[in-house]
Amino acid sequence: MDRGGSARSLLSERGSDAGSHYAIESGFYISSFAAIIFVSGITIVGVLLLSLVVALVVMLQSCENHQSSVFQQWRNNDMFDYCNIFASHMELNNLESEEFPAVCKAYANSYTNEGQYLMELNMSIQVAENYFSVVTPENNFSVILMDVDDILPPHIMQRSKLPEYRSESEEVKGLAQGLVRRLYTRLQNGGWSLVLFTREPENQRSGTVDSLTAAGYEGWSSLMMRSKDELLMGSWEYITSRRMELQNQGFTIACVISSRMDALTGPSAGKRNFKLASGHWPRITDAKERP
C-alpha cells in the first residue's frame, strides 16, 4: 500500500511538475515559422519606412530644383526681353554698338538662331496679312512700299549704312526670306502695286534686279534706288523724299513694310505701316562693355 501510494504520489508530483512547466513555457514559446514571419514583417516595415524617407527626400530635392529652374528661366526670359527691347531702342535712336549693354552679350546670338526671331517675324507678317485680307486697293494709284533690304540676303546689300550686325545662320536666312516672300506673293495676288526701295546706289540696279529675280520677286511696279545726290542724305531722309515724290505724282501710299525704323518715320508715310521683326542684333563681342 505504501509503495503504491508512494508511486502514485511520485507520479502525481511529476504530473504536477510537468503541468507547471507547460504553463510557464506556453507564454514564451514561438515556433520557427512564426519567428521567420515576425522578423520578415519587421524587415518589410523597415524597408517601407526607408523607401518613404528616400522618396520624400527625392521629392523635396526635385521641387527645389524645379523651383530653381523656373526662377532661372524667368530670369533669363526677363533679361532676354530687356535686351530685345534695348535693341529696338538702339535702332530707333540710331545708337552705336557700344551702347548695347554687356549683359546682353550672351543673348545676341540666341535671338536669331534659336527661333525667337523667326517666331516674331512670322507673327508680324501675319498681322499684315490679316489686315490686307480685308483691305483692297482703292484704285490703280494705291501702292505698297516694301523694303528690298528685308528681301535680299545681307551679303548682296554691300553699302547700306547700318550698324554692324551678327549674321543669322543659313537656315534662318532661308526661312526668313520664305516668310517675307509669302507676304509679297499674297499682296501681289491681292491686286496691289508693289514699289520696292533700297538704300543701295543707282549704279547697282542691274545686280539688284538680278538678285530679286533669282530670289523669286517679280512683277513689282518700280524699284527706288539712291541717286548720286541722295548718297549724301541719311537713309530716313532719302526714303521720306521718295515717298513725297510718289505722292506728288498722284499715288496713294497705302502702306510701308520694313523691319527698319528709318523707313517708317518722317512725313508722307502710309495709311497703315507694318514693322517686321528684325533679325539683327548689334555685334557686341568687341564693343566697349556697358553695364
What's this entry about, in short?
This protein has 291 residues and is α/β, with parallel strands linked by helices.
Explain what the structure shows.
The protein has 291 residues and is of the alpha/beta class. The chain has two domains: 2-56, no CATH class; 108-275, Rossmann fold, CATH 3.40.50. Helix content is 53%, strand content 10%. It contains seven helices and five strands; from the N terminus they run ααααβαβαβαββ. It has helices at residues 2-25, 32-93, 108-113, 116-132, 170-189, 205-214, 235-248; strands at 142-147, 193-201, 222-226, 252-258, 274-275. It has a five-stranded parallel sheet with strand order 3-2-1-4-5, with helices on both faces. The protein is elongated. Mean pLDDT is 76; it is low at 6-26, 67-75, 155-167 and 283-291. Keywords: Membrane, Transmembrane, Transmembrane helix. The chain crosses the membrane at residues 33-60.
Q: Which shape, going by the Cα principal axes?
A: elongated
Helical content stands at 40-55%
Tell me the number of strands: 5
Round the Cα radius of gyration to an integer and report it: 42 Å
List keywords for this structure.
transmembrane helix; single chain; 291 residues; alpha/beta; Rossmann fold; Acid phosphatase; 2 domains; five-stranded parallel sheet; membrane; Acid_phosphat_B-like; disordered C terminus; transmembrane
Furnish the topology, listing elements before pairings.
Blueprint: H1 2-25, H2 32-93, H3 108-113, H4 116-132, E1 142-147, H5 170-189, E2 193-201, H6 205-214, E3 222-226, H7 235-248, E4 252-258, E5 274-275
Parallel strand pairs: 1-2, 1-4, 2-3, 4-5
Helix pairs in contact: 4-5
